[in-house]
Amino acid sequence: MAIVKRAEGSAYLAPLTGFLLLFLGFPAVVNLVYSVSTVSFETLRSPSITGFGNYLVVLTDRDFWRASFFSLRFGILTALAECLIGLFLAIFLAPLLAKRSVLMAPLMLPLMVAPAMIGLMYRLVLHEFAGPVPYYLFEWFGDSPAFLDVNNAFRTLVVVETLQWTPFAFLLFYVAYQAIPLETREAAALDGASALQVLWWIELPLMRPTLMIAFFIRFIDGFRVFDNVYALTGSGAGGSTTSLSIYIYQAFFKEGAIGKAVAASVVLFLASLAVLYGLNWLAGRRRT
User: Fold this and answer.
1) Are residues 21 and 69 in the same domain?
2) Are residues 24 and 133 in the same domain?
3) Which among 3, 42, 62, 268 would be 20 to 30 A from 246, CA to CA?
């Protein structure tokens, strides 16, 4: 009987396993080969394996570490801002949304727009010479900051990313907040707990798994950001807004350094894998 069940389980898993091997495993093997090869668009089918020189080039490239620092800083700041604002909105708007659930639709509108379109839209709106925002600021106050120059571009990108993806965090937190049993709040109120005490000692601890998941999802998404940054500022003046994804894109398509680009993507993948492994290890220790 156990053998039959094991065979049935293998049969159920076979399509998924085949899919992963075909669409993920094969490209991963090809990328590993390219990362240790001298390869160009003309020699894609016959790369020349030369060792780990591509990794050495990447790890000794100041632009790579500059892009890594940009992505890390951008991911942490946007994830924090989105989670804090989303948590505030979820708690503050919960009574209103309980009575007028239709208001949830306009709050989710930013999620329906492609990030590249968001980048293009804000590029037009904030353009130093043609944008309406700088124009009216200059008309009303006599001066306007250059939102997309080297000094302000990073802050502008953080604000744009936060405006688009805060609704995602808000939606997760609102669902988690609504899932807290009403009896728990009523029992705390009967014991004399204030609303702030209920929030700090009961509601936030119950929402902690959702808070952590939302933060790391948004951090990962911010760390690998490409489309809206590339559409809004590109690599920026002097490479000031070059994320890791843009660094890999430029190495691949503009420089034609396929081996270098793939090596950088492998380093990024290994770093992400190490972070995820560390998080799983911490979660396991916490459960224990």
Assistant:
1) no
2) no
3) 42
